[in-house]
């Protein structure tokens, strides 16, 4: 992947991995992949351990990049840190995403239930916990009718999904239904 590098940072190396730095993030010079890694990994309460006894940095950059524990330790050791504002903003974004996704998923499930009872009105008062359509054709019909609701759920809850082209998003929903 290529990035546009500000002339001010040309020739400066990422303090984590040694690649071309893209700027100052989290109080250190680093590349975009290392900044993204730190943002994602920061704050995770993990009990994982390095499989190479914390020697990945000494073994080389490829080992360091593959070992999250050693890479995160290196980030901390060089002084990477999130400000309180960054932490608050990230927590709000996570809460907002989760809340939006839950609401969109609940609407999707409600749509599925309504569709199901429109197709099978005789099942409304049955006590069965779940129902499996008798034929593959019936299952495919049900899934095809759920696609618009699935796309709505994805579009309303995942901001990156909105940015996909129409064909790409329908391919994603097709993959979701076939897996």
From TrEMBL:
<dbReference type="Pfam" id="PF00105">
    <property type="entry name" value="zf-C4"/>
</dbReference>
<keyword id="KW-0539">Nucleus</keyword>
<keyword id="KW-0805">Transcription regulation</keyword>
<keyword id="KW-0675">Receptor</keyword>
<keyword id="KW-0863">Zinc-finger</keyword>
<dbReference type="InterPro" id="IPR051152">
    <property type="entry name" value="C.elegans_Orphan_NR"/>
</dbReference>
<dbReference type="InterPro" id="IPR013088">
    <property type="entry name" value="Znf_NHR/GATA"/>
</dbReference>
<dbReference type="GO" id="GO:0008270">
    <property type="term" value="F:zinc ion binding"/>
</dbReference>
<keyword id="KW-0479">Metal-binding</keyword>
<protein>
    <recommendedName>
        <fullName>Nuclear receptor domain-containing protein</fullName>
    </recommendedName>
</protein>
<dbReference type="InterPro" id="IPR001628">
    <property type="entry name" value="Znf_hrmn_rcpt"/>
</dbReference>
<keyword id="KW-0804">Transcription</keyword>
<feature type="domain" description="Nuclear receptor">
    <location>
        <begin position="11"/>
        <end position="87"/>
    </location>
</feature>
<keyword id="KW-0862">Zinc</keyword>
<dbReference type="GO" id="GO:0003700">
    <property type="term" value="F:DNA-binding transcription factor activity"/>
</dbReference>
<keyword id="KW-0238">DNA-binding</keyword>
<dbReference type="GO" id="GO:0043565">
    <property type="term" value="F:sequence-specific DNA binding"/>
</dbReference>
């Amino acid at each position: 992947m290529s990035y546009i590098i500000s002339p001010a940072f040309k020739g400066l190396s990422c303090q984590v991995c040694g690649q071309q730095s893209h700027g100052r993030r989290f109080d250190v010079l680093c590349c975009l992949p290392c900044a993204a890694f730190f943002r994602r990994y920061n704050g995770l309460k993990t009990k994982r351990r390095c499989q190479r006894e914390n020697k990945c940095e000494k073994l080389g950059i490829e080992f360091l990049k593959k070992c999250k524990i050693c890479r995160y330790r290196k980030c901390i050791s060089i002084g990477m840190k999130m400000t309180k504002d960054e932490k608050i903003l990230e927590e709000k974004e996570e809460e907002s995403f989760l809340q939006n996704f839950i609401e969109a998923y609940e609407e999707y499930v409600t749509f599925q239930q309504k569709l199901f009872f429109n197709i099978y009105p005789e099942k409304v008062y049955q006590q069965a916990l779940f129902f499996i359509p008798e034929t593959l054709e019936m299952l495919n019909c049900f899934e095809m009718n759920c696609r618009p609701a699935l796309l709505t759920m994805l579009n309303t809850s995942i901001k990156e999904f909105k940015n996909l082209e129409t064909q790409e998003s329908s391919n994603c929903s097709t993959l979701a239904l076939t897996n």
